[in-house]
Fold this sequence. Notes:
Helix content: over 70%
Amino acid sequence: MDGQTEVVNRSLSTILRALLKGNHRYFDDHLPCIEFPYNRVVHKTTKMSPFKVVYGFNPLTPFDLILLLNTHEFLHKDGVFQKVNSFKNCMRGLKVKKKKKKKKVRDIPNKIIGRRAS
Length: 118
C-alpha cells in the first residue's frame, strides 16, 4: 500500500471506532454512513473533497435539497408521498432483516454449546 491509502484507512478506522463504540461485529453495516461524509469533506492537502477531485463538484446533501423545496407541495405531487412511504417500508424491512441476522448470530454459541453437551 502507498502512504495515501494508509492515511485513508487510518482515518476510516478512527471514524468507525468512534461510531461503533466497541461493538465491532457489524462494522460493515456502517460503512455507507461514513463513506459519503468522508468523500464530501474538504481535505487539507488537496483543498478539495475526494468527490470533487473525481467528479468536479460536491454532491448535494439532504439538507441542501430541503432548502430547495417547498416540502408540502413536493410531497403531494405525482405520487411522491407514496414513493416516500414505499421507501420507509423498505427501510423497515431492512431493519427487521438486520435484527434477525443479529439474533441468528447470537444463537450460534447456544447451538454449539447444546451440541457439545449431548
